[in-house]
Amino acid sequence: MTMAQWQTDAFRDRTDAGQQLAQALSSLRGQHPLILAIPRGGVPVGRIVADHLDGELDIVLVRKIGAPGNPEYAIGAVDEARTIQQTDDAQLAGADQRYIKREAAEQLAVIRARRQSYGLGHPPIDPAGRTVVVVDDGLATGATMRAALLAVRARKPARLVCAIPVASPRGLASVADVVDDLVYLSAPEHFRAVGQFYVQFPAVDDSEVVRLLMRSPAGSSASALSEDIRIPADGLLLDGDLQMPQGANGLVIFTHGSGSNRNSPRNRLVAQAMHAKGLATLLFDLLSEDEARDVSARFDIPKLTARLDAATRWAMLDSRTKALPIGLFGASTGAAASLVLASRYPMVIKAVVSRGGRPDLAGRGALARVQAPTLLIVGGADHEVIALNRSALLVLTCTAELVLVPNATHLFEEEGAIERVAALATSWFAQWLPDQGHDVTAGRAPNP
Predict the structure, then answer these.
(1) pLDDT tens, residue by residue, 389-405
(2) The pTM is what?
(3) Total of domains in the chain
(4) Which of 9, 28, 402, 443 shows a CA-CA span of 20 to 30 A to 201?
């Protein structure tokens, strides 16, 4: 094993740490290494390292087991394979085997929920036979990193590297025997906590992790097209954003809810998950700025449907999207418009997903005519909307499911909630949209 150190005093933030760590790992450029980041704090660092080394970024999921009465102090860790690692002072901290097994089971449940909520669109990347770099934003006791490294080592990488910006001497010693190379920028003798060595050290939430994992590496061509467009409708030009990954195998048109627009951060996060699955997305403004100021217009389902109709016709005529099967993703009142349009054009609309939707506003007649497989996603704490969706489910005659996201409210603002929506929606469209190159000309919407 080789060890390499680049001495530094402190980092401005995780971006600064990632850039310096990437420089220290520059000899790996050209080997297309697999960068495995430990969520959440390791992902911003890993994203930068992967970009600079022209590598692939994925996550390795492990959770630390905290000491009794002091959950921040790691006395062990558990990985996705249910392997438990313990530090030497676990017993000194008052942790017996019953406590460790109980805590490990709780952390394993968190791991499974997190893997599902990130909705990466692919299983974990296989590290076998590859140069693998496991990164985090720092190393304190080393328990979590050791568990991660052992989990990766079991899958037979050709070369295993541990890379961290800052580490305690004790933490380095705990992982040294597991890796082929150990790269760190600083190992201060008086180490209390990782955050001590960052000027800015904000918490990293799940939405940021998803954004970084879904983002195309700098300079790559993974996203073949990203273009601002304008859709003619009712004498207006509606602004839209078209995103097409290479080899797109379907198009999902987003219809936002009342009071929102094409820049909805929740819809954009969902769209990013779809890009990773090879789905193109079109987000557009249903209303002009003046119209959006009128609250009644936000609930004018015929008008919203007419605007969605215009966007669908645009997609069916544009040379870039006309061969792609179309799905609709609607939120709130936009879900009602999506279902109405699906009821009108059963040969065109191949799948529908509703997020916190108001399917009741589509009307019973339209709901009964929908033929596209429909997924209704509602927050588990959004009780009024749950009732409305359950009633709609009884009317729908197509393949339809209702899924509740536990503890989520109407806007899915809770930790991991919108990521769960992204995973569910992406899986639904991947299942029901036909394969790439499907001919949709026979199902074109009639002329107005």
Answers:
(1) 999 999 999 999 999 99
(2) 0.55
(3) 2
(4) 28
